[in-house]
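SUBJECT: A protein chain and its fold
Encoding: whole-number codes for local backbone shapes
RECORD BEGINS BELOW THIS LINE
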Amino acid sequence: MAGSRDFAIGAAGIGAVAAVVTVLRALQSTPNPAISALLLLLVILVTATAVRVRVAIAVSVITTLAFNFFLLPPFYTLTLADPQNWVALFVFLVVAVIASQLSAAVRSRALEAVGRRNELARLFDLSRDVLVITDSREAISLLARSIARRFDLEFVALALPRGHEWDVFEGGARTLPLDTRQLSTAFAAAQASLEFDAHAGTYAGHRALTIEGLMVRLVPLRVGTKPTGILAAGGRSIEPGTLDTLAGVVAIAIERAHFLEERREAELTRQSEALKATLLASLGHDLRTPLTAIRVAATNVKASWASEGDRIEQSDLILTEVERLTRLFQNILEMARIDAGPIATES
């Protein structure tokens, strides 16, 4: 696509040279060489700023030939014996090369600036996602998928150490087998050194490996100076400094998710303790009532004044209260299950 664009612009430049030559020959039978050279130099300058070097050189050579053939006496002959022809060719070539190189450098800087702006926008969007994602119980899995979506990556994995094992949360369109030995090596390197590479704009611990034909970069996740895991990213090329910044944002997001999970667990524990205290207070009150009724009824059964009907009535009362106690003891057993873990509540 870039080649066809250069060809079109180069053809337009040659057309402009032809137009300048035609106008100059139409206005004067013997055009002024200085004016002719300046006009053609302007055409070369404009063309060279929009095309690559080889196209600019080709246009400058064609312009030199046209200048020599149509605008320098003897007309309609090609000769470079005259020193001014060599000077014109040299000037045209130098202007073409310099203008093309400067234009290429400006375009490269502009593309680099746009790329950095886009990466900053992606980081900002991910930071906004973090505020919502980390409140979920599947925060880290959602975070991996969000990174893949925001940064247009084929493969993303967040690897967190758990003893001698790794918990890996993947995102992206592809699923790749990560070598845990590579993860352990990258993590050990991140723990051993915190050197900053000023040229690359990254900290120590970056690694690159190829998995099933895809280049995957391993970047340590750090909170402060402490490594907490590994970010694996594969797909389009991302600057190492941007990857380091991304890893920092991801590490903070994971810490926030862990903090929120611990806070939820602490809240559930507090609710469980409060519920147990309430149940114990309620059961203590409920136990005293039937026990008191049973004691009074048993005393009445033994009383000398009680008739046979009174004794039967008091016995029925005792049985009723015993059944009530049985239900209370069942409640106590249910309450004992609370000690096995926190009570799940609707969020």
Remarks:
- The chain has a mean pLDDT of 79.
- The beta strands are 153-162, 165-171, 196-197, 202-203, 207-211, 214-223, 226-235.
- The radius of gyration is 42 Å.
- Residues 233 and 245 are 13 Å apart (CA to CA).
